[in-house]
Design a protein that fits this description.
Structural class: mainly alpha
Oligomer: single chain
Largest sheet: 2 strands, antiparallel
CATH topology of one domain: Membrane-bound Lytic Murein Transglycosylase D, Chain A
Number of helices: 4
Distance between the termini: 126 Å
CATH superfamily of one domain: LysM domain
Radius of gyration: 67 Å
CATH architecture of one domain: Roll
Length: 246
C-alpha cells in the first residue's frame, strides 16, 4: 500500500515538472496595445484633458511571464501539500489496518487454542464414556454368569430337598452310647476326615498329659449312627477322652 502511494506521488511530481517545462517553452501571449485610432470616452468633450488610468508600479525585474510561473509554482506547492496530507492519511489508514490485522491474528490464535482444548476435552469424554460402557458390559456379563451359577445352586438344592432322607448306617452296631462319659465336641470342617480328626485329638491329649489313645470304634460308640466315610461339613462329633469308653 505504501509503495503504491509513493509511486503515485512521484508520477504526479514528474507530471507537474513536465507541465512547467512546457509552460516555459510557450509563454503566454501578451495583450496587444490599444489601437491608436481608438479614442478615449472623454475625447469628444473639448476643453477637458482625457483621464488616464493609473497602473500599479511594476516590480523591478518582474515580467508577466515571471508572474505566471510564480503563480503556477504556488499552485503546485498547494497541490503538493494536499498530496502530502492525502499520503499521510493513507499511511494512518494502513497503520490502523495493520493493527486490526494483528488483533485478528491474535484472536484467531486464541480461537485455535480454545478449539484444540475443546477437542481434547471432547476426546477425553468420549474415551471415558467408552470405558464406562465397557465396564457396564462386563458388569452385565458378570451378573449373567452369577445368575447362572445361582440358578445351578438352586437346582442342586431343589434336588437335594426332593431326595428321600438317607437311612443312617450303624455299622452293625445298634448299641446306644454309654450313659456318662467325658468327651469334647468337634465341628467338622471342609476337607476333614475321621482319621485326621482322631490324629489331631490324640496329639492334643498327649500334650495335655493324658495317657492312652482314642480309637475309631470308641468315636462310633460315642456317636451312634455315624458313618465314618460320610462326614458332613459343620456336623458335630463327640470325641471321648482316652479311657472313657472301652
Amino acid at each position: 500500500m505504501r509503495s503504491q502511494l509513493k509511486i503515485t506521488t512521484w508520477i504526479t511530481v514528474v507530471g507537474f515538472g513536465a507541465f512547467l517545462i512546457a509552460a516555459q517553452e510557450t509563454p503566454p501571449t501578451p495583450e496587444p496595445p490599444a489601437s491608436a485610432k481608438s479614442k478615449p470616452k472623454n475625447a469628444s468633450k473639448p476643453g477637458k484633458a482625457p483621464k488616464t488610468k493609473k497602473t500599479p508600479p511594476a516590480t523591478p525585474g518582474t515580467t508577466g511571464s515571471d508572474r505566471y510561473f510564480l503563480e503556477q509554482i504556488r499552485q503546485l506547492r498547494g497541490e503538493m501539500e494536499e498530496l502530502k496530507g492525502a499520503y499521510n492519511l493513507q499511511i494512518r489508514k494502513v497503520m490502523a489496518l495493520e493493527t486490526e490485522v494483528r488483533t485478528l491474528r491474535t484472536a484467531n490464535e486464541t480461537l485455535k487454542r480454545e478449539n484444540a482444548l475443546k477437542f481434547a476435552s471432547n476426546k477425553s469424554i468420549d474415551e471415558l464414556a467408552a470405558k464406562i460402557m465397557e465396564l457396564d458390559k462386563n458388569r452385565l456379563n458378570d451378573l449373567d454368569v452369577t445368575n447362572k451359577q445361582i440358578d445351578a445352586i438352586l437346582q442342586t438344592v431343589k434336588k437335594l430337598a426332593a431326595a428321600p432322607p438317607a437311612t443312617p448306617r450303624h455299622n452293625g452296631s445298634t448299641n446306644p452310647a454309654p450313659a456318662d462319659f467325658k468327651a469334647r465336641e468337634h465341628v467338622v470342617q471342609s476337607g476333614e476326615f475321621l482319621s485326621t480328626i482322631l490324629e489331631a485329638y490324640n496329639a492334643a491329649f498327649k500334650a495335655e498329659g493324658l495317657s492312652g489313645r482314642v480309637t475309631q470304634s470308641q468315636v462310633l460308640k460315642a456317636n451312634p449312627g455315624l458313618d465314618p466315610n460320610r462326614l458332613l461339613v459343620r456336623q458335630k462329633l463327640l470325641i471321648p477322652l482316652p479311657g472313657e469308653i472301652k
